[in-house]
Write a structure and sequence with these properties.
The structure is a single chain. By secondary structure, the chain is mainly α. It contains ten helices and two strands; from the N terminus they run ααααααααββαα. It folds into two domains: about 120 residues, Voltage-gated potassium channels. Chain C (Four Helix Bundle (Hemerythrin (Met), subunit A), Up-down Bundle), CATH 1.20.120.350; about 100 residues, Helix Hairpins (Orthogonal Bundle). A hairpin with a 4-residue loop joins strand 1 and strand 2. The chain starts with 9 loop residues before the first helix and ends with a helix.
Length: about 240
């Protein structure tokens, strides 16, 4: 109970607070480590290993003292978050050990796997969701999102449909005419068209329909501008209608 219920005793509350503080500290390490001035100032590898070992031991101890079935422990959302957070570290340690006995040809592939696993270390950020469990405001937000799931599903479907339609339309309007000399499709302004394919236009459709408008890709043809205007207006309506419902 001490490990699973902070309200069980003072020691349980203290232990829980220490774990939460460690979670925040581990996320802070990710942020600080990205600063050039601190990138090589500390032994981040050793600190990360220490943090992961503490998380791993805490997870295994909670598993050992769990009173219910092991299956119920593993499928609990909070325990799944912990497992996702520590699993990349465990796999990385195994791969690092394997690299010691690998041949020169295999080390190239193992090194690539290590790079992916280091990126996967960012999964420790999901442990921040454990903090949300203790915040009543975030509980209200989560409950509201759950109750609004039908409207959210409708919103996602309508947005996906509209993005696909307007991506196809803007591609046809802005793809330009093929030029053998430039080896590209040129628009009426003489510049190569950035709308090189329908999948490439998805970015433009999302930015336009959400009214963000970065301006990195813009239509220049009259028909393309008309499609853009329709996409903007449709985006406003698609986003507003499910919210009002």
């Amino acid at each position: 109970m001490t490990l699973n219920d902070p309200s069980y005793s003072n020691s349980a509350a203290t232990l829980h607070s220490a774990v939460m503080l460690l979670i925040v500290s581990s996320v802070g390490m990710i942020v600080v480590q990205s600063l050039p001035a601190y990138e090589h100032a500390l032994n981040w590898g050793q600190l990360n290993t220490t943090v992961y070992l503490i998380f791993t031991v805490e997870y295994l101890v909670r598993l050992a003292v769990h009173e219910g079935s092991r299956c119920a422990f593993f499928v609990d959302p909070m325990n799944l978050i912990d497992l996702v957070a520590i699993l990349p570290f465990l796999v990385e340690e195994f791969v690092t050990l394997e690299m010691l006995f690998a041949t020169d040809d295999d080390k190239h592939y193992v090194a690539g796997s290590l790079r992916l696993l280091r990126i996967a270390r960012l999964f420790r950020l999901v442990r921040l969701l454990k903090l949300a469990k203790q915040m009543s405001v975030l509980k209200v937000v989560a409950e509201t999102m759950f109750r609004s799931r039908d409207a959210m599903n409708t919103l996602c479907f309508m947005m996906l449909l509209a993005i696909t339609i307007f991506s196809c339309l803007i591609y046809e309007a802005e793809r330009g005419v093929w030029s053998d000399e430039a080896q590209a499709r040129l628009r009426s302004d003489g510049e190569p068209s950035p709308f090189t394919s329908i999948p490439h236009t998805f970015w433009w459709a999302v930015v336009t329909m959400t009214t963000v408008g970065y301006g990195d890709i813009c239509p220049v043809e009259p028909l393309g501008k008309l499609v853009a205007c329709c996409a903007m207006m449709t985006g406003i309506l698609v986003l507003a209608l499910p919210i009002s419902v």
